Amino acid sequence: MLPILACSVLALGILIERFWMLRNARVLPPKLVGQIWEWVRNDELDQTKIDAVYASSPLGRILAAGLNNRKHSREIMKESIEDTGRHVAHELERFIDSLGTIAAIAPLLGLLGTVLGMIKVFTVITTSGVGSPGELAGGISQALITTAAGLTVAIPALIFNRVFRAKVEGLVVGMEEESLKLVDVLHGERELEK
Predict the structure, then answer these.
(1) What tens digit of pLDDT does each residue of 48-58 get?
(2) What pTM does this model have?
(3) pLDDT of residue 176
(4) Angle at Cα 161 formed by Cα 158 and Cα 164, nearest 5°?
(5) CA-to-CA distance for 136 and 101, rounded, in angstroms?
(6) Is there a single domain that holds both residue 6 and residue 79?
(7) 113 and 171 housed in the same domain
């Protein structure tokens, strides 16, 4: 039960951290591209503002990579955005694999506890006989509790593993859209949509 309890505490910590870190407003701040475009149009964009954009959010890091290469061709600007985007996407996926691992091992730990409990019950039977059926049933039910505990940890961990993967995919698509919008706007290939 102790390893299952440790898995549940770890899973809860990951859930709280991922819910906090994967908020839309934190990853994709609204109107960031519009603000950058205002600075460009008013000729106010300088390295200090680019550094502020970089520090503001994961999307800001991607946009800052493009802004640092804005005087180069569209392809070079896109390439720098894609390189930074891969790193940002990797950071957004942090701990999600750990949650999947917890979802995989928690039922196995529960099963291990059940098997060990059943071995203990059968050892008692071989040494002292069948004895009271009530005692045997109590020992078996106690052994099955570990399986239930393992499943209780694994099922939510698996659900949130999938939820967070889908959330990260959606955020990555949103960051791609915003960064491509910035590239197109800076290279005069589209008007900024309000």
Answers:
(1) 999 999 999 99
(2) 0.84
(3) 94
(4) 150
(5) 34
(6) yes
(7) no
120 & 69 share domain: no
Q: Tokens standing for 101?
A: 């691992």
Verify that 148 and 180 share a domain, yes or no.
no
Same domain flag for 76 and 19: yes
Give the chain's domain count: 2
3-state helix, strand, coil in the chain (%, to 5): 85, 0, 15
Q: Is residue 175 within 8 Å of 128, Cβ to Cβ? A: no
Residue 167 to residues 18, 87, 154, 176, Cα–Cα distance (Å): 10, 17, 20, 14
- On whether the CB atoms of residues 118 and 96 are closer than 8 A, the answer is no
On whether both 145 and 86 belong to a single domain, the answer is no
Residue type, 140: I
- What is the residue range of 60's domain? 2-94+167-186
